[in-house]
Amino acid sequence: MALSRKPVFHNLPSPPVAERKPASDTRHGITRTDDYAWMRAENWQAMFKDPNLLDPALRAHLEAENAYMDAAMADTQALQKTLFAEMKGRIKEDDSSVPMKDGPFAYGTAYVTGGEQPRYFRIPRDADHRDEASRKLLLDGDKEASGKDYFRLAGLDHTTDHRFGIWGYDDKGSEYFTLRIRDLETGEDLPDVIENTGGGGVWAPDGKSFFYTLQDENHRPSKVFHHIVGQPQAADRLVYEEKDPGFFVGVGGSLLDDFIYIDVHDHETSEYHLLPTKDLTAEPSLVAERVEGIEYSLTEGGDVFYILTNDGGAKDFKIMETPVEAPGKKNWREVVPHEPGRLILSHMAYARHLIWLQRKDGLPQIVIRDRRSGQEHAIAFDEEAYSLGLQGAAEYDTDVIRFSYSSMTTPSQLFDYNMATRERVLLKTQEVPSGHNPDDYVTRRVMAPAHDGELVPVSLLYRKDVALDGSAPCLLYGYGAYGITIPASFSTNALSLADRGFVYAIAHIRGGKDKGFAWYEDGKMKKKENTFKDFIAAADHLVKQKFTSYENIIAEGGSAGGMLMGAVANMAPEKFAGIIAAVPFVDVLNTMLDDTLPLTPPEWPEWGNPLDSEEEYQWIAAYSPYDNVGPKPYPPILALSGLTDPRVTYWEPTKWIARLREKAPEAGPYLLKTNMAAGHGGKSGRFQRLEEVAFEYAFAIKIAGRM
């Protein structure tokens, strides 16, 4: 199929040409040559902590790429400013959350006009949160971020007696967080400084110590430490160490303050260890030994634990209960049975109720179960496609939980829900200061036939006055990995595209859990190519139904969704007018062969282990975007990267762009934007992030010829 693309880039300078330094690698008798392997900095661990250590030659190349990108996008500067102003105008600058009640206080966050970072505050439990005079400021994110190019807060967790709080920050984008302890009465930080953590801590009930995870030299949270306030970090007790590099460790606590949870997991297997808070020096006890492919998670319900698990063939999960005093698997008893097609996503327990979030027929539901009577009811909604968020409560002895609701046309609404009376109280509706009329827009869900007969849900947003004759441009977004579902939620940013005549579409492709756990399984390991074929099928269906046309589709995805972008670019370049790949995981084979990288061993259950298995090597080699670049009619491609990104390292998109230029020099152009002061999530401030979205959307609008 020949695609007539609009010529939108004019008078471009010559792009940077990366030096080729062939490096050969032989696995399973198969030899590959990588001309750009040199772009992987040998000192990457140290560089993530101190970006100034980047090799000067690499820095010069990345800066040359940024200069080329600037030249290509120079004519969008005014558009970017307009888009930024629109997006910022839809955000209530001095917004604040509805505080969550916990003991004598209620805790919340707020922003000030012009502020980039949140402010954490508390008020007396029954005070009016709109009365700013009642607020006590606990942590000012803007003040802490002052003078830093990058700054990301990891929240504020208070002690049971509400005297102290742990707060964490990352000021390089490398996701090595520093923890500090704040006296919430005086506002001063204690001398304690805990470095290289995973980003949070869990207080012991006495408020004199806490537990945290430490990132190892390969950026994996592999150890849990116990820190006693006032002691140096070097004196912290090692509580748990995970020896298997394929597993990550997390630490949490129960609402009743009875236990510290140590969660050991990869993408398909989990294991819990419990430390009773009545004896903080005890060794953690195992709940149920890890079994490959079996997942479980705990929530405490007084004298029992409720366990969400897929054990026993419960592919879409079930809920069990077991005595707190004897939580081993032999004592698990079924409470909520497995129901094929009803995927239970998460669960929470309170004094009188058990609740869970499930997805059925592609849509989320919240279900409430009375623990005494066993009666169940679901919180009902009417729209064709929508999103739910379950916040629960900060207290165990409560009948009131909190949840959020939105759709692609309906701004987010926050509710308190009484589980006993079934009363729903609207606490807050997301304000759009510049104005928003939901009646001007349409949200729909259509089903795209896939190559094997499956139906792929596609959520759509567009203005009612858009002509559905194939002429509309379309931004088609996809992710499709790790079982993550992309919700059909309200996005103020997407309105900037819809208002310019775009159809904004989300393809709910395999690899996510949009249609149950089987939907995830059919998009991983040897079935990974289903993810890519589903996305192409979504594009085909939108064209067939005249929502858009091939010459008007701009594809977008980030991280694992960026790998999706690289794969569909290789498989069907003629079906896309442009591609936006944010922090794209495109060098899949090389990364999965490098077991020193942070995510490689834990990722093997998702993609395969090419080190040990020739078959799995061949799976990945067949689709790895970097390895399959060839002389093809690629559309214009924009790749975005973060220098200190520990998840998708900067060299992946850098190598990809270099190879695209080498193999298909007449196609493209290929643009690379590397944020030299950020990591995986891009810029950290709420408005700084809008600048990046405005840049991406400006590229899409330019490609669509709508400037």
Automatic annotation (TrEMBL):
Coiled coil: none annotated. Residues 15-429 form the Peptidase S9A N-terminal domain. Residues 489-704 form the Peptidase S9 prolyl oligopeptidase catalytic domain. Gene3D superfamilies: alpha/beta hydrolase, Prolyl oligopeptidase, N-terminal domain. Residues 18-29 have a biased composition (Basic and acidic residues). It holds the Pfam family Peptidase_S9_N. Keywords: Hydrolase, Protease, Serine protease. PROSITE patterns: PRO_ENDOPEP_SER. Residues 1-29 are annotated as: Disordered. InterPro entries: AB_hydrolase_fold (IPR029058), Pept_S9_AS (IPR002471), Pept_S9A_N (IPR023302), Peptidase_S9_cat (IPR001375), Peptidase_S9A (IPR002470), Serine_Peptidase_S9A (IPR051543). Belongs to the peptidase S9A family. This is S9 family peptidase. It comes from Pseudorhizobium endolithicum.
